[in-house]
From TrEMBL:
Pfam families: FAD_binding_3. This is NAD(P)/FAD-dependent oxidoreductase. Residues 6-316 form the FAD-binding domain. It comes from Yinghuangia aomiensis.
Length: 442
């Protein structure tokens, strides 16, 4: 068995892995990133970035490569539901005031190329088979590849698992979940040809009843059309995928109008089970980045942004202390607590939006009130861009005003509205409790 010593090993070379490898290599460290895929390679993903996510591409150094793929800039976003709609623009993040939706084959290849340009050794088609452990620490990995005789051992002071929700590294280190939430919505998406120029700069979402759908213009002259029906409808989709997809689009009149006359040009991709979680993400000689350590329901499209940001921050934090195990472990643990502190409120907000409930009068009133405010739509988009925390938008005063306005509307089922308010209060209490616990841990 051959053996090689490096400064850091990254398992998985997509968003989080490439960002971590780029930061480590940029700091002068010898880093090897391995991935079972060969790029360009796609993966299941809704791949939307708000302005804050595009800014993370720039911070990693990949934005120029990504923009060369030709995805249109989303200068505005739109949300529509029965009786209410809002359309707005983004507050600039590092001077960037637009979103993008970039197909993963091109996006991930651009990130891999960025890591290589920084000096990272990215090895494709390489699979981790086991970990190397010494004195109670992870000290490397054993890998195999097609055409490789036997296994090859890579040793390093730090192994970063950035290998997705079904992370091999997470499984091998026994990383447990300390927060989790089952998803209530499934995902079904496909690509449509999209010549409609009036929509090419808009990321749009529609809600009606319990249904949710989005259309995001993407590269290649296409648009990503995503449905997130209640998960219990999965059997209906399983029996007639294309028919049920089309019937569900028709339940969302605005989305149906957006796609009218457009041709679906790909198969429909589906993902039914996608629970949200935080896993323990640091230990002696190891860390978990991206979906390997933390995953949020795709309804708020935060995954790529967080993978890029916290992959980069992990690489930047670890690079100076790789030669000092005790300091390295402390730095990586501090990085994990920072990620949890920054993501926890958004995690609970996402779980709230991911409930497959009927659109209710409180939601409609919120959208009406935001649409009336001069900067209301921007305040909402700032939450998606992570410029503003959900609690800074959903203040007690704002929620009280929404509740009063909803109660005053004719035909509102006040008992149902009270149940909605009670559920919102419980969610807020859970969020505050977890934020308090995270603050104590820090």
């Amino acid at each position: 068995m051959s053996e090689e010593h490096v400064d850091a090993i990254v398992v998985g070379a997509r968003c989080a892995g490439s960002a971590a490898a780029t930061a480590l290599a940029g700091a002068g460290r010898r880093v090897v990133a391995v991935d079972a895929a060969k790029f360009p390679s796609t993966t299941i993903s809704t791949h939307l970035l708000f302005a804050g996510g595009v800014a993370e591409l720039a911070r990693v150094g990949a934005l120029e490569r990504v923009e060369a793929l030709g995805a249109p800039r989303h200068d505005e976003a739109y949300i529509g539901m029965p009786g209410a709609e809002v359309r707005g623009t983004y507050s600039p993040v590092d001077g960037i005031a637009y979103g993008m939706c970039v197909r993963r084959a091109g996006l991930d290849l651009a990130l891999v190329e960025t890591a290589r340009a920084a000096g990272a050794d990215v090895r494709e088609g390489v699979k981790v088979t086991s970990l190397v452990e010494e004195d109670g620490r992870v000290a490397g990995v054993r890998v195999s590849a097609r055409g490789m005789q036997g296994e090859h051992t890579l040793r390093a002071p730090l192994v970063i698992g950035a290998d997705g929700r079904r992370s091999t590294v997470a499984r091998l280190v026994g990383a447990s979940e300390h927060l989790s939430n089952p998803n209530e919505r499934a995902c079904y998406y496909a690509y449509y040809e999209d010549p409609r120029t009036e929509w090419r700069g808009t990321a749009a979402m529609w809600l009606a009843g319990r249904e949710l759908g989005t259309v995001f213009p993407t590269d290649g002259g296409l648009a990503l059309s995503l449905l997130m029906p209640p998960k219990e409808r999965a059997d209906e989709f399983r029996l007639d995928l294309e028919g049920e997809y089309d019937r569900t689009v028709a339940m969302l009149p605005g989305m149906a109008e957006r796609l009218a006359g457009r041709t679906r040009v790909t198969k429909i991709v589906q993902s039914v089970e996608q629970p949200s979680y935080f896993r323990r993400s640091s230990g002696p000689g190891w860390a978990l980045a991206g979906d390997a350590g933390h995953f949020k329901d795709p309804v708020t499209a935060q995954g790529i942004r967080d993978a890029l940001r916290f992959g980069r921050l992990l690489g930047e934090a670890a690079a100076p202390v790789l030669d000092h195990p005790a300091r390295l472990d402390a730095v990586v643990r501090k990085w994990e607590l920072r990620r949890e502190a920054e993501c926890l409120e958004t995690y609970h907000w996402t779980n709230r939006l991911a409930r497959a409930d009927e659109v209710n009068p409180l939601q409609e009133q919120m959208l009406r009130m935001l649409a009336k405010e001069p900067e209301g739509s921007r305040r909402l988009l700032d939450v998606y861009s992570r410029v503003r925390r959900p609690g800074q938008l959903l203040t007690p005063g704002f929620l009280a005003g929404c509740a009063v306005g909803a109660f005053r509307r004719r035909g509102v089922d006040r008992r149902a509205l009270l149940r909605t308010l009670t559920a919102e209060a419980r969610t807020e209490l859970t969020t505050r409790r977890d934020l308090f616990r995270a603050a104590r841990m820090r």
